[in-house]
């Protein structure tokens, strides 16, 4: 066997091994890239969501992982104990297309909860949480389909603005919102779509009424003080007059009496 044949015999298996290692590195991200308690898998291009899928379901997480791979396209955070979403929590995930946050302990959503996902996100699942209130602009720039059922929503002006700011393809979300409580008492327990009122104007009118009642209260207090002040002054004047009347008259001097007699 020549030296060339010997070199090829040794080199070809080495090349195949290197190719295998490269493929494994591409398909299975290293442990240092994958958040603790999660599994990361890179799917093939022929699948619906090809790219890096990060699954953190049922991992007893209490907050959003901070070391999420930036190339993540699918992120499952369902069935955990996450109670809040910090502003810009997903800001570096510019390829993220699906985000599952169902079955957590979320109670409210801020304005920047989904900042950075406006151009890529296609599906956002927030079902089966404890969400009662949202910022009016929480969903305004998202193009994703949002799943919001099974949350104890408080139907107020902010929620009405948030749902109204969704894209047209999110009309289904409005039909799934049930008002656990509402600014209108007779709407408690009713579907959001049954609320036939402008809750923002209602809140404004309520504020106006409160201001009117407050102003009337202050005005009544001022009038009462003025009346009390006038009556008190009148009483003081009457007492002073009675005091003056009770004083003895000034006796006349002898010289004055003689002058009066002479004149007469």
What structural keywords apply?
alpha/beta; 6-stranded mixed beta sheet; two-stranded parallel ribbon; 5 helices; 37% helix; elongated
Concise overview:
The chain is of the alpha/beta class and 264 residues long.
How would you describe this structure to a colleague?
This protein has about 260 residues and is α/β, with parallel strands linked by helices. It has five helices and ten strands. Helix 2 runs antiparallel to helix 4 (about 200-245). The longest helix has about 50 residues, at about 200-245. It is elongated, with a radius of gyration of 40 Å. Mean pLDDT is about 80; it is low at about 20-30.
Main structural class: alpha/beta
| Low-confidence runs | 20-32
Largest sheet: 6 strands, mixed
Give me the side-by-side strand order of the main sheet: 1-2-3-4-6-8
Rg from C-alpha positions? 40 Å
Note the beta-strand portion: 5-15%
Measured as a percent range, the helix fraction is: 25-40%
- Helix count equals 5
Query: What is the H/E string?
Result: HEEEEEEEEEHHEHH
The dominant shape is elongated
Mean pLDDT over the residues: 78
**Kindly, what is the distance between the CA atoms of the first and last residues, rounded to a whole number of angstroms?**
174 Å
Number of strand segments = 10
């Amino acid at each position: 066997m020549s030296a060339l044949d010997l070199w090829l015999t040794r080199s070809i298996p080495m090349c195949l091994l290197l190719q295998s290692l490269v493929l494994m590195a591409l398909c299975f991200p290293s442990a240092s890239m994958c958040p603790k308690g999660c599994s990361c898998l890179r799917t093939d291009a022929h699948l619906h969501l090809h790219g890096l899928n990060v699954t953190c379901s049922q991992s007893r997480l209490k907050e959003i992982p901070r070391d999420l791979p930036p190339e993540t396209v699918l992120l499952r955070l369902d069935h955990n104990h996450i109670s809040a979403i910090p502003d810009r929590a997903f800001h570096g995930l510019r390829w993220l297309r699906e985000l599952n946050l169902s079955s957590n302990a979320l109670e409210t959503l801020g304005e920047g909860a989904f900042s950075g996902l406006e151009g890529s996100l296609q599906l956002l699942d927030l079902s089966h949480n404890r969400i009662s209130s949202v910022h009016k602009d929480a969903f305004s720039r998202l193009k994703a389909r949002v799943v919001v059922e099974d949350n104890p929503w408080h139907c107020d002006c902010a929620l009405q603005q948030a749902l109204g700011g969704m894209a047209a393809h999110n009309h289904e979300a409005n039909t799934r919102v049930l008002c656990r409580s509402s600014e209108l008492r007779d709407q408690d327990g009713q579907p959001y779509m049954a609320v036939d009122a402008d809750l923002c104007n209602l809140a404004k009118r309520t504020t106006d009424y409160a201001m009117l009642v407050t102003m009337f209260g202050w005005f009544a207090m001022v009038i009462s003080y003025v009346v009390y002040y006038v009556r008190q002054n009148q009483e003081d004047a009457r007492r002073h007059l009675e005091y003056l009347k009770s004083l003895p008259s000034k006796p006349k001097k002898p010289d004055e009496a003689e002058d009066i007699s002479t004149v007469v």
